[in-house]
Structure formats: structure tokens, C-alpha cells
């Protein structure tokens, strides 16, 4: 059952505006038992993981409640302490340093790169397997994702635009624009064995990308090579299959358009439908992103590092981590499986008029400000 707690903020009901509520928090804040006199700050009993789209931002616009919520994390709360947090998103397309600059500007607070876990950030933990091997990277515009991949340590990253520039007949229904042509890396793919395909971010040209993925997978890495689909009579089954890794399973996501938009999960389903129609089975792949266990474990390790930096000491026991999010299928399901309390907000994908959420959160809030307040009150009662 979804719990709704009575308020412990003394003046909450006496104030009508969000700004007045924030002023009251500053007035009534007292540095209680969580502050100590040593130079090392004591960790509060909770930390947060926030989704971004639909929680803090809607498209390029900041949700007003987000700034008030971040004020609370920065000390405007009854505990009088700074509360650590990370941003855990299925979005991506930029490096973490570039993302932090953009988010800091949008949210009006200083965000650090080690607070950001994007859908593809987890690939930093597996790059050593493919650092020296040719890989195909998908998503974003032009060569933006190649730059992210190279920054992670992939030394030989190629895009589907590189393949199209090599042989336009690979997909004769798209002519490279001057901007796209300027971004390509010249290569002869007849002699480049692609060992893995990484879908970092939402692809921009589904038809081209599906065709090139099919070519790479079916030829075991050589674009234009003979197809080596699994067969009892094939004499080349010793060739390893090409690993397909996707970073975001979200079927839908919330932009500033009135209705949710198709995400990378929809691209995965489109590819698998085509592959099954052609070959007769779905292709095995590695899936990262919320709600996968691997992503939540990775996010917890990032948060632990953040907490150790915050406290200046080793963190043996994690505080309770609250996931604030808008998507029951990815955020709430993953948080529940990880044992994190979860708060579902109504400012994104979740539409209460369509019935109860598919995965039950610990609490449902109007927005991120209410979500943060509820979590703090809950911990204070304990």
C-alpha cells in the first residue's frame, strides 16, 4: 500500500506558496544531532538518487519544484545538513563533464561529474575488454557518441555514418549531409572486424542503424562479408558472435511534448522484430540502464564514492537511498528491486488518470519538492 505521511514541518500548512515554505525551512532549521564539531561532516541518515527527465527537467526547461528541492538538499531542511545525492538517468549522449556543465546551468546549482550516472556511464567499467578492438557505437548526432566512447577509452570506435561514407550502397535511402560527412572517420570496413556494438544513446536514423547492425551481426563483424547465421551445416561457427550492448531500456520518456516519446527501448524492439523476421529468433544482447540490477549496483558504487568524498572517510554502511523518479517501469521497478525506498512523481511519464502505477512506489508525490520533503520527514520520524 502507498504510504502518505503526516507533515512534520511545523508551519507547512500555514504557508501557501513554495517560496514561503522554503523561507520557513530556513527560519526553523536547527543543526541537530547530525552535526558534529570535528572537521569531518557526519553523514545524514539518507541520500538521494534523482532521475532527470520528468523529475528535474521537462525537455530543456527546469521544473520549478526542482530548485526548491535542491535547496533542501543544500541545507534548508530541519536537520540543517547537506544531503548527498546523485543523478541517475537513462538519458545520455554527452560526456559526464559536459553534462554537468549543462545541468549546473539549468538547475542553478553546482553539479559535479561524479554525481552523474548516465545510461552509458556504466560502460566505463567494461571498456577494458574492448579498448583495443574495433567497435560500433550508436546514438546521438554525427560523431558525438564516438567522442564520448573515445573519452571512455575505446580507441577504435566507428559509427554507422562511417560505414555509409565507405559504401553509400549499404543504405541507399540516405545521403550524408555536409555536416555528417565532415564527422566521419574514413575506414575500409572490409578489413575491420567489429567485435561489439554499443548503443550508447537514442539512434537518430533507425533504418540505417538497423541495417548496419544486421550486417555486422550476421557476418560476425565484417560489413559486406558473407552471412554466417547459426546453422548446423556452417563450418565457421568457431567465430565468436558480435556482442550487442544497449544502455537504455526505456520504451517511453517525457520531453516537453504533451505525450511521452519513444526511447531507446523502442529502437531495441524494432531491431529485434526485424532480426527475428529475417533470422527466425531474437538476438541475445546485454541490457544496461534502469531498472537493471547492474545499473543500480553501479549507481550505488558511485554514490558510495561520493559519500566518502563528502565525509572524508570510508563508508562502511550506506545511508538509506531514496529514488525520486517519474517512470514506474524503469525507475520504481529498479529501486524496489535494489531495496531503495522509491517516490513516484506526477510531473513526467506517470499519468495517474491511467490507473495505478505498474510498480508500487513507497510514496506518490506531486513533484520532486514534495518527494524530498516526505523522505526527510520519514527519516526524522525514525
From TrEMBL:
<dbReference type="Pfam" id="PF13344">
    <property type="entry name" value="Hydrolase_6"/>
</dbReference>
<dbReference type="InterPro" id="IPR036412">
    <property type="entry name" value="HAD-like_sf"/>
</dbReference>
<dbReference type="InterPro" id="IPR050324">
    <property type="entry name" value="CDP-alcohol_PTase-I"/>
</dbReference>
<protein>
    <submittedName>
        <fullName>HAD hydrolase</fullName>
    </submittedName>
</protein>
<dbReference type="InterPro" id="IPR023214">
    <property type="entry name" value="HAD_sf"/>
</dbReference>
<dbReference type="Pfam" id="PF13242">
    <property type="entry name" value="Hydrolase_like"/>
</dbReference>
<dbReference type="GO" id="GO:0005739">
    <property type="term" value="C:mitochondrion"/>
</dbReference>
<dbReference type="GO" id="GO:0016787">
    <property type="term" value="F:hydrolase activity"/>
</dbReference>
<keyword id="KW-0378">Hydrolase</keyword>
<dbReference type="GO" id="GO:0046474">
    <property type="term" value="P:glycerophospholipid biosynthetic process"/>
</dbReference>
<dbReference type="InterPro" id="IPR006357">
    <property type="entry name" value="HAD-SF_hydro_IIA"/>
</dbReference>
<dbReference type="InterPro" id="IPR006353">
    <property type="entry name" value="HAD-SF_hydro_IIA_CECR5"/>
</dbReference>
Amino acid at each position: 500500500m502507498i504510504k502518505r505521511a503526516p507533515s512534520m514541518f511545523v508551519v507547512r500548512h500555514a504557508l501557501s506558496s513554495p517560496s514561503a515554505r522554503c523561507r520557513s525551512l530556513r527560519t526553523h532549521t536547527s543543526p541537530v544531532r547530525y552535526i558534529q564539531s570535528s572537521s569531518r561532516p557526519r553523514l545524514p541518515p539518507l541520500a538521494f538518487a534523482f532521475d532527470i527527465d520528468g523529475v528535474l527537467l521537462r525537455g530543456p526547461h527546469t521544473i520549478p519544484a526542482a530548485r526548491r528541492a535542491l535547496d533542501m538538499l543544500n541545507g534548508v531542511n530541519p536537520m540543517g545538513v547537506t544531503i548527498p545525492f546523485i543523478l541517475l538517468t537513462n538519458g545520455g549522449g554527452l560526456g559526464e563533464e559536459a553534462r554537468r556543465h549543462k545541468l549546473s546551468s539549468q538547475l542553478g546549482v553546482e553539479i559535479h561529474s561524479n554525481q552523474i550516472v548516465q545510461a552509458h556511464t556504466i560502460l566505463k567499467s567494461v571498456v577494458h575488454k574492448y579498448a583495443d578492438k574495433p567497435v560500433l557505437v550508436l546514438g546521438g548526432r554525427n560523431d558525438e557518441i564516438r567522442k564520448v566512447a573515445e573519452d571512455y577509452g575505446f580507441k577504435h570506435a566507428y559509427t554507422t555514418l562511417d560505414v555509409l561514407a565507405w559504401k553509400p550502397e549499404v543504405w541507399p535511402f540516405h545521403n550524408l549531409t555536409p555536416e555528417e560527412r565532415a564527422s566521419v572517420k574514413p575506414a575500409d570496413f572490409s578489413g575491420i572486424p567489429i567485435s561489439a556494438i554499443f548503443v550508447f544513446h537514442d539512434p537518430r536514423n533507425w533504418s540505417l542503424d538497423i541495417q548496419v547492425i544486421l550486417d555486422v551481426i550476421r557476418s560476425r563483424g565484417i560489413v559486406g562479408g558473407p552471412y554466417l547465421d547459426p546453422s548446423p551445416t556452417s563450418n565457421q561457427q568457431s567465430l565468436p558472435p558480435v556482442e550487442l550492448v544497449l544502455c537504455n531500456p526505456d520504451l517511453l520518456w517525457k520531453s516537453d511534448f504533451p505525450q511521452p516519446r519513444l526511447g531507446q527501448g523502442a529502437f531495441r524492439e524494432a531491431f529485434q522484430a526485424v532480426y527475428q523476421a529475417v533470422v527466425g529468433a531474437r538476438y541475445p544482447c546485454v541490457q544496461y540502464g534502469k531498472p537493471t540490477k547492474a545499473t543500480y549496483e553501479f549507481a550505488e558504487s558511485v554514490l558510495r564514492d561520493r559519500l566518502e568524498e563528502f565525509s572524508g572517510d570510508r563508508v562502511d554502511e550506506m545511508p538509506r537511498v531514496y529514488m525520486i523518479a517519474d517512470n514506474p517501469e524503469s525507475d520504481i521497478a529498479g529501486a524496489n528491486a535494489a531495496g531503495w525506498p522509491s517516490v513516484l512523481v506526477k510531473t513526467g511519464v506517470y499519468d495517474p488518470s491511467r490507473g495505478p502505477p505498474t510498480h508500487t512506489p513507497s510514496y506518490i508525490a506531486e513533484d520532486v519538492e514534495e518527494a524530498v520533503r516526505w523522505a526527510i520527514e520519514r527519516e526524522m520520524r525514525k
